[in-house]
Amino acid sequence: MTATERHNVRVRGRGDAPMMFAHGFGCDQNMWRFVAPAFEDDFRTVLFDFVGAGGSSLDAYDPERYSQLSGYADDVIDVIEELGLSGVVFVGHSVSAMIGVLAALKKPDLFSKLVLVAPSPRYIDDEGYVGGFTVDQIEELLAFLGENPMAWSQAMAPAIMGNADRPELGQELTESFCRMDPEIARGFARVTFTADNREDLARVSHPTLILQCSDDIIAPLSIGDFLRDQIADSRLIVLKATGHCPNLSAPEEVVEAIRGFV
Question: Which of 200, 216, 234, 249 is catalytic?
Fold first, then answer.
């Protein structure tokens, strides 16, 4: 099976320059449906699903490969190389922001710019660093997911989405979480919430746009400042959007910010 088949790749757009959109944990490429079309006149847009999400091949899941975020970064590289692309503008949401960073460090010539949407290099607090969660909180979260994925999705998705005045958004994220294969979801959640990519940031050489939401329970505001300070050629924009998924809750603001960067 080819990488494009394995990851349910969809290529659209009328431009020559490639722009790749990568989804976060528990999501799929459909989460970009309000953002990606805005760039089809000027870019060749690439959307895909990580293994275990959307229309990807579940048979391709390898617990060892995906025990680290580098396995997901290799998937990004596989898709780009199979399509014969270079100079990709990579747009990654949530955990995919760090996946994109790792991919760009592995194969820098494949990328031109990085857009990190609601990113976090580490979700766990550390000395002098606020990630938003304690070790115990993360372990409780992961244990809850392992015991009852449905209940976890129903409890966590609306909180992650935020925007309580728009319950349909939380419901969409809940349904997206519930569609993910439980075994793959447990593995992806653990590698997502226990990863520490802080030391990778100083090695990023590509121009980078950091889009931080003004109120996000997953990625506190201080993380945006941390990323800006660690990545040499970076720009931080704090969105008016709230919650962790501005690509759904405030797509126009996300599109405007990215347009000003690319």
Answer: 216
